Amino acid sequence: MMDDLKVESEEKLSGEKIEVDEERLPSRAMAIHEHIRQEGEKELERDAMALLWSAIAAGLSMGASLLAKGIFHVELTGVPGGFLLENLGYTFGFIIVIMARQQLFTENTVTAVLPVMQNLTMSNIGLLLRLWGVVLLGNLIGTAVAAWAFEYMPIFNEETRDAFIKIGLDVMKNSPTEMFANAIISGWLIATMVWMFPAAGAAKIVVIILMTWLIALGDTTHIVVGSVEILYLVFNGTLHWSDFFWPFALPTLAGNIVGGTFIFALMSHAQIRNDMSTKRKQEARLRSMHDAKEHKHEEKQH
């Protein structure tokens, strides 16, 4: 079964590896693109159960964002600048998920999309839809478990529970159109963050904090973090299940995909298309020079 899960690419056909060495590529942007494409191919070819368990773990981990933000909200009430520190709590779940290499749906709106854009075939599109479906399902299962635990396990005091409710209700103040528009921004910011990782090195955690803190400060909507917040309201009876899907989940999911895939990934891929053409010309020139040298060598032997 696993042998069938292969991304179709020029490198696979020729038996080569994706070139990620910046010195051998036309631009720094292309080096980053190829590095992310290499990671994307690995994700697309992973076993479905491995993806699912990793995605469930990510959904659970995202509960840390609601947990931290709720606690900060209670403890920082009346403190000058408390809003800034409270929203810093939003970053906790992302730090855990990304540093632990767990599967987050919005991260895959750019990472797994680049290999498909590089070679747009039905097989590759099928692998992408498979990955998205499994990871989204796992993320939602994990967030549901986290939200259920926060509501039914005797962990938090009433002030913290009230803070969780307030956080969720603040999200639900958005209309479906606002959910969609805000989600485009968060999808774009997550994709930007992923694009920055190859160059970030040891500063990766700083990039995660800054970009996800900005998402929180902008009151944007995110399908995974938001699911913990809204499902908490569902489990405590504040909202009906239907409210989770509309006005929240469907517009937010669509917005995250548009922001991460159709805006960022398309633009990122477009900017290096000319570089790819240059790279192919360089490779053709090198092959031609190599063939010429071999031909001269054969003539000398004769």
UniProtKB/TrEMBL annotation:
This is Transporter. It is a multi-pass membrane protein. It comes from the Bacteria. The chain crosses the membrane at residues 50-68, 127-150, 179-198, 205-225, 245-267. It is found in: Membrane. The keyword Membrane applies. GO terms for cellular component: plasma membrane. PANTHER family: FORMATE TRANSPORTER-RELATED (PTHR30520), INNER MEMBRANE PROTEIN YFDC (PTHR30520:SF2). Its main location: membrane. InterPro entries: Aquaporin-like, For/NO2_transpt. The keyword Plastid does not apply.
